[in-house]
Hints:
mainly alpha, CBS-domain, Tetracycline Repressor, domain 2, 3 domains, 3-stranded mixed sheet, 5 strands, about 65% helix, globular
Amino acid sequence: MSDNKKSEQAISAPINETIDGISRAISERNKPAIEQLLSPLNPGETADVMDGLPTDDRRQLIELLPDTLDGEVLLHMGEGAAIELVEEMDADTLQQATEAMDTADVVELLDEVLPTDAAKALLGSMDKQRRERIELNLSFDEHTAGRLMHTDAITVRENVTVETVQRYLRQYENIPQDTTLLIVVDRENRFKGAVSLLTLILHPCETLISDVMDDDWRTLDPNMSEQEVARSFENHDWFSAPVVDKDGYFLGRIVVDDVIDTIRDHADHAIMAPVGLDEDEDLFAPLLPSAGRRSVWLALNLATAFLASWVIGLFEATLEKVVALAVLMPIVASMGGIAGSQTLTLTIRGLAMGQIADSNRLWLLRKEIGIGLLNGLLWSFVVSIIAYLWFKNQQIAIVLGAALTLNMLVAALAGIIVPLTLHRMKIDPALSGAVVLTTVTDVVGFMAFLGLATIFIL
Length: 458
């Protein structure tokens, strides 16, 4: 097989096959084989491989090939795995690994990966200009446009010609990554507009920048949330956008790659948070720390389960006399849980996208209560018929239908109120909403079903 074909095969190989190959090479201490497998990979793919290796294999890989772990790879790795490796790096190695990274990526590394002492040491090793740029990012809150922006943008004046700007660009040894816009500013660095690189190519050299720039370009406030930034990029189809403060001074730029990373992080959080997992948890982290983190969530769920069991225990005498109630009881809780989860998911999404405001909350509440009532009546009718055919007991069928309707109505109400309340309390609804909702629907469902049965059947 030719070298070109081998390279193509390596590039197209799935990451799991690469992980298997590197694991074998590590066990054999085969350094050339590891280099051959890693050479076609970009930093993101290398990070995927590192995340897929058990802890001991990661350490051995770094011992064999210390240059594998640069700043870009650390940035793309899961937070848990990256922190573990950083703790074993000295200050000089860390400084060398990050010196080629742009400021926004260094800020992300400081925020998410580096321990406090390592972060201070890294900042102290930088030149004054680079450190001041990074400190500007760090002066803004986490998960805001100011924290996300790149401060290494190219700025020009409006009174120069296209030819002057072209000559200016040729002087750059390295144009900042993902540069699609040049920012037009005045002498005091106030934002005046933007001009695309394509515009510079298409217009005559003698054209003034003021004649071709877009002076109506929308800007981002540095205190905007990441979600608002992502919506702005989606609404305007931007590849890049300037960040400007309330006084009109240009601070930096955000590019679409940053937005994609933000969307991915929020999607991972939405998947992992409802079951109490961190989206950056290391799949191959040591046993005891992993078990400890999960135990907290299990303990919380155990407490809510005991609460539901306590409610059932209040009606022990009823269950002993009418055994059919124990058979049908899970139906009420399950249907309420599903109905509530649907409303909860829509509400959390609406909050994340900024669609829920004070002016429309009451309308949304009425709508979801209406849906809960309609679905409750529909499915209580279906379930009542099934229960009657099963147990030949009209009273049980009616009680089941009434309890189901009530629980689905309460579930719809809780699906709105729980996330809104948590959001107002600055608690992430995606993390805590499902647990609270499940507790509500279980307790109300069991209480309604067994309580009505006690009143009307016994």
